[in-house]
UniProtKB/TrEMBL annotation:
Residues of the signal peptide: none
Domain Circularly permuted ATP-grasp type as annotated: residue spans: 78-453
The name this protein goes by in its record: Circularly permuted type 2 ATP-grasp protein
InterPro entries: ATP-dep_Glu-Cys_Ligase-2 (IPR051680), CP_ATPgrasp_2 (IPR025841), UCP005522 (IPR016450)
One Pfam family it belongs to: CP_ATPgrasp_2
Amino acid sequence: MNLHDYEPGDFYDELFIEQGQPRLDAIPLVDRINSLSMEELQRRQQSAQIALFKMGVTFNVYGDTQGTERIFPFDIIPRIVSANEWAKLEKGLKQRIYALNLFLADIYDEQKIIRDSVIPAELIYSATGFFKQCMGVKPPEGIWCHITGTDLVRDRAGEWYVLEDNLRCPSGVSYVLESRRVMKSTLPLVFETMNIQPVEEYPSHLLETLLNLAPHHLPDPTVVLLTPGIYNSAYFEQSFLAQQMGVELVEGRDLVVSDGYLQMRTTKGLKRVDVVYRRIDDDFIDPLAFRADSLLGIPGLMEVYRAGRVGLANALGTGVADDKVIYSFVPAMIRYYLGEEPILANVPTYLCWEPQQQSHVLANLDKLVVKCANESGGYGMLIGPHSTQAQRDEFAEKIKAQPRNYIAQPTLSLSRVPSLIGDQFEGCHVDLRPYVLYGKEIYVNPGGLTRVALKKGSLVVNSSQGGGSKDTWVICQ
C-alpha cells in the first residue's frame, strides 16, 4: 500500500484533495513516501520513536497503573500548512493575543468591559483563574500573557476555528523542537526539496521575551525557569527549555525572598533573580498570598512581584482568560478593545449558565461536546455522539448542579492527516497548537504542535488520552 491508495473519506484532509490527488504543497512529500517500501517506512517510524525516547521526550501520567513515565507517540507523516493559510493564522493569532492582553490589563484594573456590560461581572468573579490578589498589579511593559498556546481546529469545509486559549503554563513546544530534529534525519531528502519554515529559533525568542521583563537598567539580568519538580507531567520540557536558553532550572526550595528581592540559593550564597518563567499555577506559587498548604512556591513572592522587583511569565492572574466560559467572549473583546472583526472564529459555544442555552444543551447531549470550564488534557469532557445514556445522565446532573462550570459545542468533523498505523495509512484527526510570544512585539512560531488522535475514529488528541504528535511544516512564501 502507498499513499496514492489512501482514502481521505468525508473529512477535510490536510495532505489530499481526494484519493490519489495530493494538495500542491504536499506533492514532494507524497512522492517521497511513495518511493519507500512499507518496511522502510516502518523502520524509519521506529527509528524516529527510539530517537525521541533517547532524547528523553516523554510525559508523565499521574495515578496510572502502567507507571508514570510514557513515550510520547509520534507519527512521521507531517502536517503541511500552506504559506497563505499560515499568513492568515499568524495575523489572527496576533490579533487575539493583543485583545486578550488588553482584557487582562482591564479586568485587574478599571474593569471597563464589565461596566460597559460586555461581559457579566459574575462570570469574571466566579472564574477559578481570577484572583483578587492581582488587582492593581502592573506587570512590566503592561504585558500579561507572554507565552500562549492557542488550540486551533479545522472543520469538514477546511475552515479554521479557535478551540481554546492556554495562557497559564502552556506546554508542548519542546515536542515541536525535538520532533523537527528527528524529522530532518528521518526524511532528509524532503527537507532539501521543500522550503519549510524553521522552528528552531523559539528558545532564543523565548529568552528575549523573558529578558524584556527585567528592569532595563540591569546589564546582565538573571532569568530562571521555575518547575514543580521531576514528577510534573511536563518536566522534560521544562528542563529542555532551561537548557536551550542557558538559564537555571529551579524549584521553589531553591528560591527565597530576602532584602525585598527574590534570591536564588547558590554555592556562593544568595543571587538576585530578576525574571521567573514559571511553570507552576498561581494557586501554588506563594503560600502567603494563595494556597497556604503549597510546598512548591516561594513565601513572599507576590509582595516582591507587586513591588515590581521581579518579572513573572506569565503574569499571575492570566488563568481567567483560560476559562472556557470567558473564551466565548473573546470575539466581543476583539470588537470592544480593537474595534475590529475577529480574523479567527470561535467554535460556536453554548453557555450552560444561561437557562435557555442550558435547556438546549440538556435536550441535545447526544449531539454536543460538553466541557468543564477549567479542566484540560481531555478530562471533564463528554463527547455526546460517542457517549452512553448513563454518561449523558451523569453530565446532565453536573450541568444542573453547576451551570457556570460547563459549556457545550457542536461536534466538529475535525480535519485529518494520513498516519502510519501498523502497515496501513489511516486518516487520523488532528488539532494544532501554535505558540505565541509577546515581548517587544508579538511573535508566532511557524507551525506548532500538531496533536493527533492515534486511536481509530477518536477525536481526543491529548497525550494523556492516547494521542500523539506530528511535525508541522509551514511552507515559506
